[in-house]
Design goal:
The complex is a heterodimer of chains A (220) and B (201). Chain A contains 7 helices and 11 strands. In chain A, the strands form 3 sheets. In chain A, strands 1-2-3-10-5-8 form a 6-stranded antiparallel β-sheet, with helices on both faces. Chain A has a 3-stranded antiparallel β-sheet with strand order 7-6-9, with no helix packed on it. In chain A, strands 4-11 form a two-stranded antiparallel sheet. Chain A is 39% helix and 23% strand. In chain A, a hairpin with a 2-residue loop joins strand 1 and strand 2. In chain A, helix 2 packs across helix 6 (99-105). Chain B has helices at 2-39, 42-63, 67-84, 95-113, 117-120, 133-147, 152-163, 168-175, 179-200. In chain B, helix 1 (2-39) crosses helix 2 and helix 7 (152-163) crosses helix 9. Classes of the chains: A alpha+beta (220), B mainly alpha (201). Bound molecules: zinc ion. Residues 3, 6, 31, 35, 37-38 of chain A line the site of zinc ion (ZN). Chain A: InterPro entries: Anti-sigma_ChrR (IPR012807), Anti_sigma_zinc_sf (IPR041916), ChrR-like_cupin_dom (IPR025979), RmlC-like_jellyroll (IPR014710), RmlC_Cupin_sf (IPR011051). Chain A: It holds the Pfam family Cupin_7.
């Protein structure tokens, strides 16, 4: 996989600081699963957290804390945890999806319960808690997503096919990392459908008539 | 003038000393964790516990969990340090960074389970305890020593992001600056830190 589009440093810092909403964190983790370059960068943004941990003013633990942990460390790790990790790995291998997404979906992209939301566009909402939304969009060849701007940040990870917009061409593994000021209109640019994961930290704002019509309908 | 200068030098010399000490400490703990992975020696674990436990707990409290939950998550984190020590790779991360990520992930999981307090706060309600300014200043001092000399504005956004777990939009709102400025300050801070780390190693 040749990845050309990566995250902004600020996004990786938000990931490392643990301040991303769940959907965005899953999306970042999924790209990291495929991208050595961003993994290397995250080891540096994580380091900021490590250095801060050293600098923090400690807060005393309960007096019996060490004893309680010592009582547990000789016991084997709970089966359940180990089992769920290995089943996630199986899911990931079977579906070809990156591990964090595979474990969240538990099925392949084609097995999902897609909902048609307009001409040539289907959607699957991951229904995660927290601000913003996390969805999979499945877009037919030649079709474009309505023009929209963003109030917050929007991350997109390509899982199948490709699209092009004002920012360039995006293929499997690539991410688009855009915020408030960016107006863009992705269009699927081959005869293969495009499936992408989109996570936002605030609702999208569509522009123009098409956007206004589509918004209540798509509910993005 | 002259006095100011020498004082400036003393301050920066003191900061250098602090940084050197911190660097040595970081390396020491990394060695302890690496040998724990090899030997499974409980005494080493106890040492790691006494250093990192109270720091993890402080960090988790800052992120917003009540002290009792923070204690539980910290114990859970230290237990994973023991269980996952064999996965630690000293050439890739320091002990503090590796332990930080373990603790952060567990804390996020717990916050999700407890439906993070912030969502229960009515939208417009101001955080009733904006962390006291004095404490803020002291922490920022320590942080600066740890992170090299960052300009105030950059240290502040790093602080809000990593220590208070605030999102970029929340930081923008709190400081009354555009989202784009929050991100550019973070990027600048990161560039400075990387230069600083290279100079250090
Ligand atoms: Zn990347």
């Amino acid at each position: 996989m040749k990845i050309r589009h990566h995250f902004d440093d600020a996004t990786l810092m938000a990931y490392s600081s643990g301040s991303l909403p769940q959907g965005m964190a899953v999306l970042v983790g999924s790209h990291l699963h495929w991208c050595d370059e961003c993994r290397e960068r995250v080891s540096q943004t994580d380091r900021i957290g490590g250095d801060l941990l050293e600098a923090i003013e400690p807060v005393a633990m309960e007096p019996d804390a060490l004893a309680s942990i010592m009582a547990l460390i000789d016991q084997p790790e709970p089966e359940q945890k180990l089992r769920s990790l290995s089943s996630d790995r199986l899911d990931s291998a079977r579906t070809g999806l990156p591990l964090p997404l595979a474990s969240m979906l538990g099925s392949s992209l084609d097995e999902l319960d897609w909902r048609r939301i307009g001409y040539g566009v289907q959607q699957y909402d991951l229904k995660l808690d927290g601000p913003g939304a996390t969805r999979l969009l499945r877009i037919a060849p030649g079709v474009s997503v309505p023009h929209h701007t963003h109030r917050g940040n929007e991350l997109t990870l390509i899982l199948r096919g490709s699209y092009s917009d004002e920012l360039g061409r995006f293929c499997v593994g690539d991410v688009a990392d855009v915020d408030t000021e960016v107006k863009h209109q992705p269009i699927v640019d081959t005869d293969e459908e495009c499936i992408c994961l989109i996570a936002t930290d605030a609702p999208l704002k569509f522009t123009g008539l098409m956007g206004r019509l589509a918004q209540p309908f798509i509910g993005l | 003038m002259q006095e100011d200068d020498s004082e400036g030098k003393n301050v920066s010399a003191a900061a250098d000393l602090t940084r050197d000490r911190q660097k040595r400490e970081r390396e020491t703990w990394t060695k302890v964790l690496a040998s724990l992975a090899e030997t499974r020696d409980k005494r080493l674990f106890a040492e790691l516990f006494s250093h990192f436990g109270p720091r993890i707990k402080a960090y988790i409290i800052r992120l917003g969990l009540p002290a009792a939950s923070a204690e539980e998550v910290t114990q859970e984190a230290m237990l994973s340090v023991w269980r996952k020590a064999h996965m630690f790779n000293a050439s890739k991360a320091s002990a503090s960074t590796w332990i930080y990520t373990l603790a952060r992930n567990l804390c996020i999981d717990r916050m999700r389970k407890e439906k993070a307090v912030e969502y229960e706060l009515p939208e417009d309600e101001v955080d009733p305890s904006p962390r006291h300014l004095g404490e803020h200043a002291i922490l920022e001092q320590r942080m600066k020593a740890a992170l090299g000399t960052l300009p105030e504005a950059q240290a502040q956004v790093l602080f809000l992001s990593y220590y208070e777990g605030k999102s970029h939009s929340e930081i923008a709102e709190q400081l009354g600056i555009p989202l784009g400025s929050v991100k550019s300050r973070l990027r600048l801070a990161f560039d400075k830190l990387k230069t600083h780390w290279e100079a250090q190693s």
